[in-house]
Amino acid sequence: MLIRITGPNFVAGVVFDEDDDEVRVAAPIVRWAVGLSAAQLRVELAQRGLTATVVRTLTGPEMRRDVS
Hints:
alpha+beta
């Protein structure tokens, strides 16, 4: 799923793989999120005072697409 993360001076996105319970891709400003589980991501967001909103659920082909 695509998640929008909002901070005081930025808006960024991460791609969360629900099957593996892991952040797969993240914008450079939130690269610390890559590899975190859903629970770990919630804790980090709360500690950093950030909010998250699910933008949409990605399809299988979108999840497998090489984004590098």
